[in-house]
């Protein structure tokens, strides 16, 4: 292949790999880049270690869309090596055939937005019988200067049916094909509408046609052959302005010569579409899939291709992340692709179909699932404390209930053991004066019942205790000293 040297807008950017045997390679990379940026041809340092392999991060490369022929060298400097081999690889192309010259230059013809991406070139050769390989990496982006033309066409017709209108648009597009080739532009019919005419609404209709003009047709940059970055950028701007005026004059002349279009066919009625109005609107907007950024310092008003995960509808000025539920896997997407089968993406800016997941596994659901262990750790001490307090309170209330009910239960049974009697005896002083009124009637009643069960009918008089009560108290009084000893 023979090709002119490409017009590369190159922004040097280096990420050196420090440490180990690559320190020397890093210093050599810096030397090469400094010499390259100074405009002088640098000789390759031959003091590379044996079996050397080092990598050069080339940085950003901007190529204008629809460039007639772009030649990207494998190395940013001129290299003179014996019998080298070159290998170009793109990160997003599985099996793509590249056009490479014998000098190792990668050729692009009519560069498109989809050609953008990360490229790497590895040059391999033998030096002093030692294999040496060097890798250069580039991030390539398509861009375009601002400038376009929107045309509005109005045609009168007796019919307002779909089939005749479609046939008319196909004939119009075919006749404009020659004008595209001559003016190095692209003409695209976008939107049409049909509505009744104001003069005679019953039998006259108006067909409105919108025509978009792109100034970047085949060989549009054939006059820009300079290799200087600033010079070629200025040439692009001049070419766009010149072609813009030429296309407008050519379209005006075309519709004056083609005033009426006759449409006929076996399945459609014969009809005429007569041109009544042609209007032009010069635009300075990014085309679909492109947006304005400050990455290209030489052309701050230029439009850069949108990377994967973003999109830019036509006539907008910036690339926006794909909304949740959509993704864009390639460069230069005007509209993001929706996920299928009701799936959704977790976050905006998805760049692959694999980012689509089921709705129940959205970001909110995943965040809640991730927060559950943290919530458990936070609530666990509180739950343990509540359980401990519940157990203590239960024991306390159980103790109180047992303390109040056990003396009464022991006396109502009439079978008080010696130990229970002693226990109740020692508890009597702790109850204090408040226990007397409650305990007195209960004791008297139990004793009277006990005496009644034995056949005694005597009732105490003048507040004197009964004989049964007196005997019981005596028994307790005799027993207590024995246990104390």
TrEMBL record:
Entry keyword set: Membrane, Transmembrane, Transmembrane helix
Domain Ig-like: 21-133
One GO biological process term: acrosome assembly
Stretches with biased composition (Low complexity): 442-453
A cellular component annotation (GO) from this entry: zona pellucida receptor complex
Region span, Disordered: 426-485
Keyword Transmembrane helix: yes
TM helices/strands, residue ranges: 374-399
Full protein name: ZPBP2 protein
UniProt source species: Uria aalge (Common mure)
Gene transcribed to yield this protein: Zpbp2_0
